[in-house]
Amino acid sequence: MAGAIASRMSFSSLKRKQPKTFTVRIATMDAEMEFSCEVKWKGKDLFDLVCRTLGLRETWFFGLQYTIKDTVAWLKMDKKVLDHDVPTEEPKTFHFLAKFYPENAEEELVQEITQHLFFLQYGDYDPNVHKRGFLAQEELLPKRVINLYQMTPEMWEERITAWYAEHRGRARDEAEMEYLKIAQDLEMYGVNYFAIRNKKGTELLLGVDALGLHIYDPDNRLTPKISFPWNEIRNISYSDKEFTIKPLDKKIDVFKFNSSKLRVNKLILQLCIGNHDLFMRRRKADSLEVQQMKAQAREEKARKQMERQRLAREKQMREEAERTRDELERRLMQLKEEATMANEALMRSEETADLLAEKAQITEEEAKLLAQKAAEAEQEMQRIKATAIRTEEEKRLMEQKVLEAEMLALKMAEESERRAKEADQLKQDLQEARESERRAKQKLLEITSKSSYTQSMNSSTTALPTDLPSFNLISESLSFDFKDTDMKRLSMEIEKEKVEYMEKSKHLQEQLNELKTEIEALKLKERETALDILHNENASRGNSKHNTIKKLTLQSTKSRVAFFEEL
User: Fold this and answer.
1) Distance CA 322, CA 361 (A)
2) What pTM did the predictor assign?
3) Which of 47, 51, 161, 463 lies 20 to 30 Å from 444 when distance is taken between CA atoms?
4) Among 47-61, 248-262, 279-293, 457-471, where is mean pLDDT lowest?
5) DSSP assignment of 14-44
6) 32-to-23, 62, 95, 312 alpha-carbon distances in Å
């Protein structure tokens, strides 16, 4: 009995020690994942698990977002997951998204960050696969953009496909970077907007991004009226709905603004602290972790470069082998055709020789017959001459017959001579036909021997595109230990690749401008939104986001604070 009680107590103890769990669903841009989390887990535990699962190292740009009462919020790293105002039902859903944005993607991003890019989904352009209509089911552009131009879906598809084909072979990391470089130059890139009021109660928009705090008119989210970079701000705090900003210069008074919701204030503070930390971190020497990541990224980039070069060489050799095979097949077909023609010529020569021989025999017989007739005519003439004709009429008839006999004899002699010449010519033609027959047989023999050699060569070459044993040997010879690679040579190759990439990037920007110019004529001006018009005005004046902010910060912090309070 005591043993049974002890056993039950032990089982109950184990049961109590088992951690309680709850299910979390993480939605990314491309997929959804589910995890079983312990109730004691903090936000950092869940976030680290997601980052490990995704293989992400530059974790500081990202966060887990959720929605509560129509307001977005971010999971805090130092707070238990279940202590957040998350829905009670399971699975609890969070969105894995970029929370902070780099100032300069090309300089700051170390790890390749896979975006939902067009040809990352479809792979490299292949004319045999990507045929007309393959984009019909894709929502490639926002409806607002499509409605803005007099272009049918087929016209858009044609232009997109042409660009897709033109950039065939571009490396994925290059494509990602070009995508981010275009995005980061847009006025609203990385900006989080919040409705605020200054001391006078003027309704304004606060923009928080990687560069600092920006103040906008509610009707113009593109061009800020005032900017305060992070290096001018010492402290940010809020009490209830009022935010207090302390400038770095202690001689300058603080300035304040109000927001409408407490939850929004928490979000503003989170974004301000995170962006400020990253801004200051970028201006310091890289930490050991970042140095290691950059070293690993350089090694990885070098490996990929060598791999691309190896694949390019193998591809080139394969294409050369295929071209050689095609050329040999073409030559073989040509030789076969020549052999067929030679064989036909030989047959024609044999038939011609037989016909000429038969014709020569007939001509000889005709010549003999004509000679015989000529002799008979001569005899008849002699006989007629010997006949005595006494009367004038008989004499005249006799003379006429004699004349006719002479003419017939002359004609017979000429015909006989012509037939004799023709017989000689036929004999000569026969001899030439026999010689032609001999040459044709010799050529057929040569062609047959060449065909056998070509077939043996072709059979050895045809195997190349499938098996390519020589390529395998090349691949084996190209395998290397990166630590033993000549780093100087590798650095030169990377530098060369960088120069080529810059040229490609410049070319891409030129193409983008050409496309804008091309479709500008098809734009329906009456359908432009207020933001479209503002963007066009900024572009026409040459006002980019960065130079606008630079101009705004030329004035002293004190004068800008005063200007903000007077808005």
Assistant:
1) 58
2) 0.63
3) 463
4) 457-471
5) HHHHSPPEEEEEEE-SS-EEEEEEETT-BHH
6) 13, 16, 9, 36
